[in-house]
Amino acid sequence: ENRRLIGAAEAEAHAAHVAAYADASPAVLLALAAQELAEQFPNIGTLNITPDLLSSALAQLTKPRTAGDDTTAPAQGPA
After folding, report:
1. What does the pLDDT read at residue 9?
2. How many domains are contained in the chain?
3. pLDDT at residue 14, as a whole number
4. Which of 16, 24, 60, 73 is most enclosed, with most CB atoms within 10 A?
5. Is the separation of the CB atoms in 20 and 74 below 8 Å?
6. Contact, 30 vs 61, CB < 8 A?
7. Dihedral of CA 39/40/46/47: which sign?
8. Does a structural domain hold residue 47?
9. Domain for residue 9, yes or no?
10. In contact, 31 and 61? CB cutoff 8 Å
């Protein structure tokens, strides 16, 4: 019974954690991922970043915003 309650509480906490990022823009998610990666650097032995991945990530972070660009809109997945 205790394990079931603990499992349910962990699942609820995880769902709340995921829901917090549901409306975040791709730029915010990328920045959060970069921050998480930076926190793990001491534990990472080898990290290979391809030029394509790096240029894509940097392009997203440095892309100029236009007046009609809503960076707070939720990311749209494939239809």
Report:
1. 96
2. 1
3. 92
4. 24
5. no
6. yes
7. negative
8. yes
9. no
10. yes
Q: What is the mean pLDDT of residues 69-78?
A: 50
pTM for this entry: 0.43
Residue 69 has a pLDDT of: 56
Residue 42 is given by DSSP the state G
Angle at 55 between CA 35 and CA 17, to 5 degrees: 30
The whole domain housing 47 covers: 24-62
The answer to whether residues 25 and 72 touch, using CB atoms and an 8 Å cutoff, is yes
Supply 78's token pair: 């494939």
Q: Distance between CA atoms of 36 and 10, rounded to whole angstroms?
A: 21
**Residue 6 belongs to a domain:** no
Which pLDDT tens digit goes with each residue over 23-72?
Answer: 888 888 888 888 888 888 887 788 788 999 889 888 877 877 665 555 54
3-state secondary structure of 11: helix
Q: Position 75: which residue type?
A: A
Question: Dihedral of the CA atoms 72, 73, 75, 79 (nearest 10)?
Answer: -170
